[in-house]
Design a protein that fits this description.
Elements (H helix, E strand, L loop, with lengths): L5 H29 L10 H8 L4 H8 L5 E6 L14 H11 L3 E7 L5 H4 L8 H16 L6 E5 L5 H11 L5 E4 L10 H12 L5 H11 L11 H11 L15 H16 L10 H4 L2 H14 L5 H10 L7 H10 L14 H7 L1 H11 L8 E2 L2 E2 L6 E6 L2 E6 L23 E6 L2 E6 L9 E9 L2 H9 L7 E5 L4 H4 L8 H9 L4 E5 L12 E6 L16 E5 L4 E4 L3 H6 L20 H6 L12
Parallel strand pairs: 1-2, 1-3, 3-4, 11-12, 12-13, 13-14
Antiparallel strand pairs: 5-6, 7-8, 9-10, 10-14, 11-15, 15-16
Helix pairs in contact: 1-15, 4-11, 6-7, 7-14, 8-9, 8-20, 10-13
Length: 605
């Protein structure tokens, strides 16, 4: 680790020591399974016949032997969601590329893909976090047939990619390549979208005008263009070496996008145990890969949801990541991107300015990334310091630009937007929480004000409509954790709280729920743990208690004498309405066994 700064090396070593036993156990199991070789050759004739019964004659002939690699496709395709609709064409492209490379590809299984954008503020959002673990399970079922020598994963959005990574690492003896669909083209500018949302929240425009603006923003195939969890996912896959270099932010349905998909297929087949570059993903992803991904999260001002997902993803490989690790890496990592909600640009502007290739090179040259990691492309991060281009039908790569094409969007390491990533852990007598301040003005990073307590976001919305929140206050929204109601995002609150902040009031949010990958200008202490339903101290806060959210010192406190606070009886809440409807009754077991947010909020032990 001599090529990285001491702060990065220290956190990496701390993770390695903490994870030594669990990582060794994981690798022992992985290597034992890999040593068995391709399982397909040991299936009974009846098993194998079932596995290729629907294949064409040439694919069937290949699968009858033991030499042609078979690629499993795990897809999150559906045609309701813009980010996943482009995947409809991918299996045919992948199968064609596999045949060109002397292999076979089969769709091993589909996984659900829900959209937080559709379910924001709706009952369906209470299934969102748990969908990550369902996706991991569904992918596991697809791969359980043991027909495959490698897998490619087609997914983009919020919980889908983390769930697919958990599955890939669970089947860590197989190589894994992630294939993105890319962002939609630029629509209505993000600042204009935010302005119209606030006007609607204030009652100054109607639903027709709001819907027109939203439709102009979310207007075609591809990922939403703001820098929320979906695009943070794509960044993570590139920083972890699970994408082909330069693949993350190429628009859907373009010749370059298709060429990258075919290239990824051929690479997945090249790194199976049948070839000379065997790269099982569980060996490839190690502590250095995880640290690189966290550094990428901070440098880009990425989604707060990944303070949960990265912990769960790392755990699937026997690696124990903590909020303290994430916070310490934030202190060491400068912010190099201004993409909405941390700026006015979208991911297309970021990509045009030099994108991830430029950023990876800047961070690596400054000693903030481990260069010596393994990737699906080979050894080391250097191949990712590039832009992907198309020459004829072939992907070519050129070095990332020496200078950013737009330093208002993508800054060099010598002139960062701020010296740290703006994502911190808070601790105090209310428990632990995380806060993202990359878009919060300095004079709003410490808020001390009376608590106004709510047991749901609809209660706050109603109080806002009645004019009861025209004052300084800290909104304490509890019973929103994994065990209570699946930990929904509370992004629906952003316009109302933003309006109040713009009117000059000191406003902050404290919640055991999530805020969003689009956490913005209002200071929000989120993922508070222990949650209220687990007996967390957030359940003892009363209206009028002074609460201090201090993102500078990293503290979250209710300013009540310790003896008085300890003697209080925690509040209770009637959560029966959260137990049914929109499929919520199917997830009762998940709510009961879900772990705390700082351990990944997972249903897996």
């Amino acid at each position: 680790m001599s090529d990285v700064q001491k702060a990065i090396a220290d956190v990496t070593e701390r993770i390695r020591e903490r994870s030594r036993s669990s990582r060794e156990t994981y690798l022992e199991r992985l290597r034992a399974r890999a040593a068995q070789g391709p399982k397909r050759s040991r299936l009974s004739c009846g098993n194998l016949a079932h596995g290729f019964a629907a294949c064409g004659p040439s694919d069937k002939a290949e699968l009858m032997g033991d030499e042609a690699p078979n690629l499993g496709i795990i897809t999150a395709y559906n045609d309701m969601l813009s980010a996943h609709q482009p995947f409809e064409r991918f299996p045919a492209l992948i199968k064609e590329a596999a045949r060109e490379a002397g292999g076979v590809a089969q769709v091993a299984g589909g996984v659900p893909a829900m959209c937080d954008g559709v379910t924001q503020g709706q009952a369906g959002m209470e299934l969102s976090l748990f969908s990550r673990d369902v996706i991991a399970m569904a992918a596991g079922i697809g791969l359980s047939h043991d027909m495959f020598d490698a897998a490619v994963y087609l997914g983009v959005c919020d919980k889908i990619v983390p769930g697919l990574v958990i599955a890939a690492l669970t089947f860590g003896h197989l190589p894994a390549v992630f294939i993105p669909a890319g962002p939609m083209t630029t629509g209505l500018p993000n600042d204009e979208k935010a302005r119209i949302r606030q006007l609607y929240a204030e009652g100054k425009i109607g639903r027709d005008e709001l819907l027109k603006a939203e439709s102009a923003s979310y207007h075609g195939p591809g990922t939403c263009t703001f820098y929320g969890t979906a695009n943070s996912n794509q960044m993570l896959m590139e920083f972890m070496g699970l994408h082909m270099p330069g693949a993350s932010f190429v628009n859907p349905n373009t010749p370059l996008r298709d060429a990258l998909t075919k290239e990824a297929t051929k690479r997945a087949l090249a790194i199976t145990a049948l070839g000379n570059e065997f790269t099982p993903v569980g060996e490839m992803i190690d502590e250095r890969s995880i640290v690189n991904s966290v550094v990428g999260l901070h440098a880009t001002g990425g989604s707060t949801n990944h303070t949960i997902h990265l912990i769960a993803m790392a755990a699937a490989a026997g690696i124990k990541l903590t909020w303290q690790d994430i916070s310490d890496l934030s202190d060491a990592t400068p912010l190099l991107a201004r993409v909405y909600p941390n700026g006015l640009a979208d991911v297309n502007h970021f990509h045009a300015a030099g994108g991830l290739g430029f950023m990876i090179r800047e961070l690596a040259d400054a000693g903030l990334l481990h260069r010596d990691v393994r990737t699906v492309f080979g050894q080391g991060l250097e191949p990712y310091m590039v832009e992907a281009k198309l020459e004829g039908d072939t992907v070519k790569r050129v070095p990332a630009p020496e200078k950013s094409h737009d330093e208002k969007v993508l800054a060099p390491i010598s002139k960062p937007f701020q010296p740290n990533g703006g994502l911190k852990m808070l601790t105090g007598n209310l428990g632990k929480a995380v806060i993202k301040i990359s878009a919060v003005k300095p004079d709003r990073q410490v808020i001390e004000a009376p608590a106004v307590v709510f047991h749901g976001q609809d209660e706050l919305q109603e109080a806002f409509r009645k004019g009861e929140l025209e004052k300084d206050f800290v909104a304490v929204i509890r019973f929103q954790g994994p065990k209570a109601n699946g930990m929904p995002e509370l992004h629906k609150l952003t316009p109302a709280l933003g309006v109040l902040q713009d009117r000059g009031y000191k406003v902050a949010l404290v919640t055991d729920g999530r805020m969003s990958g689009a956490s913005g200008k209002v200071p929000a202490a989120i993922h508070v743990t222990p949650e209220a339903l687990d007996g967390g101290p957030i359940g003892k806060v009363l209206n009028g208690d002074m609460v201090r959210v201090d993102a500078i010192e990293g503290t979250l406190e209710v300013l009540v004498p310790a003896a008085e606070f300890e003697a209080r009886t925690a509040a209770t809440a009637d959560l029966s309405a959260n137990a049914h409807g929109t499929g919520r009754e199917l997830f009762e077991t998940f709510r009961r066994v879900a772990g705390p947010a700082d351990e990944g909020a997972s249903v897996f032990a």
